Amino acid sequence: MNRISWDDLFMEMARLMARRSTCLRRQVGAVLVKDNRAVASGYNGPPSGMAHCADLGGCLREKLGVPSGERQELCRALHAEQNAILQLAITGLSGTGATLYVTHYPCFTCAKMLAQLGVRRIVYAEGYPDEFAARFLEETGVEICRYVSS
């Protein structure tokens, strides 16, 4: 019997998380894994209990014509990686040595947070236009792997 690989399993979980997102621009999912166990997950969206952009008549960034990757503070959503990190903190678990499976390459802000958390490996499915994040993660020694289905 052929079993699904760990990378395939956790990337599928990240993709399922992305399906929870209501973002009008991009749906992103993330799963933090330690010792082949998912310890936290997240998707991009507003903080719990807050209205989603679709409920407010659309995306503020779209209305203002903000290009992807710029002025991220003009978004009411947390990134999937940020939600996974916060979930880890709420449960009191450590991210040291974890692997992050994420549907899209992390932005620079998330890259800094993931490095500080102690993530040792990031597996991403789709690229993202942020050369600063790539340089930063390379400098910190975090292993970056583009996901390839087995």
Describe the overall structure.
This protein has 150 residues and is α/β, with parallel strands linked by helices. The chain has one domain (6-146): Cytidine Deaminase, domain 2. The chain contains five helices and five strands; from the N terminus they run H-E-E-H-H-E-H-E-H-E. It has a five-stranded mixed sheet, sandwiched between helices. Strand 4, helix 5 and strand 5 form a beta-alpha-beta unit. The longest helix is centred in the first third of the chain and has 13 residues, at 6-18. The protein is globular. Pfam families: dCMP_cyt_deam_1 (PF00383). This is tRNA-specific adenosine deaminase.
Q: What assembly state would you assign to the polypeptide chains in this entry?
A: single chain
CATH homology-level superfamily: Cytidine Deaminase, domain 2
Rg estimate, integer Å: 15 Å
Structural class of the secondary elements? alpha/beta
Could you say what the CATH architecture is?
3-Layer(aba) Sandwich
| Percent helix | 25-40%
Low-confidence stretches: none
Number of domains: 1
The description of the largest β-sheet is: 5 strands, mixed
- SSE run: HEEHHEHEHE
Strand order, sheet with most strands: 2-1-3-4-5
> Can you tell me the CATH topology?
Cytidine Deaminase, domain 2
Percentage beta strand: 15-25%
What is the β-strand count?
Answer: 5
Q: What's the total helix number?
A: 5
InterPro entries: APOBEC/CMP_deaminase_Zn-bd (IPR016192), CMP_dCMP_dom (IPR002125), Cytidine_deaminase-like (IPR016193), dCMP_deaminase (IPR016473), dCMP_deaminase-rel (IPR015517), Deoxycytidylate_deaminase_dom (IPR035105)
Keywords: Hydrolase, Metal-binding, Zinc
Domain CMP/dCMP-type deaminase: 5-139
Active site: 81
